[in-house]
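On to our target:
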Amino acid sequence: MKLNVPPHLETKLARAADRRGMAAEALVLEAIERAVEYDDWFLREVEKGLAQIDRGEVLTHEEVGARLQKRVTDTQTRP
């Protein structure tokens, strides 16, 4: 695969790689891997959420509000 990087981004990339003490190519590969792994994780989490909805495991608007209010109250009462 060949990737054409615009000059302004190539400059930023070279600077970032230099600060980390690595080659720009290695930094690009690391960033791509991180992005792909994040996308995979995100899609898995969405699928889990949709499965919960299908099973009826949902909270009403009121239940969400009550949970948030309890968190706020609990946080305010801590020493």
